[in-house]
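A brief tutorial aside. Many learners find it easier to grasp structure tokens once they have seen a single protein encoded end to end. The record that follows does exactly this for Transcriptional regulator. Read the sequence first, then the structure, and try to relate runs of similar tokens to stretches of the chain.
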Amino acid sequence: MSSEYAKQLGAKLRAIRTQQGLSLHGVEEKSQGRWKAVVVGSYERGDRAVTVQRLAELADFYGVPVQELLPGTTPGGAAEPPPKLVLDLERLAHVPQEKAGPLQRYAATIQSQRGDYNGKVLSIRQDDLRTLAVIYDQSPSVLTEQLISWGVLDSDARRAVAHDDI
């Protein structure tokens, strides 16, 4: 296995693990020691080759198809997920209600569903951005630019929606 391929595979493994909210130690605990943190970490760094059998077992453990772990199987072959969309709730509070009302209500709903009231930032999914774009009657990329101009989204958000415009 080439070093670059191993690193891309490792990035996919890390992305799946973190999407599931698991630390390396959490993987070891959840698997009752079947998957050692040090071994999974070495797979993720690309320091250790993983056999096809072990990769299939790890995919089963994570509850994902094996192809989701293989490099080059996402649109554009990207090994890393797009940047997170993180709303700055403190800045959102300073945007005039007539502009930001729908976004404020949407964010409040997500906070309520998650029980997440830190009040500083809120991560949203690309699907949330598409829904907000419909509410604002704009394309996701135009809405992203609007939110960046309000200071509610970081400019990195452009990369997250660049390939995903409707």
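Self-check: Confidence is low (pLDDT under 50) at residues 75-79. If you spotted this yourself, you are ready for the next section.
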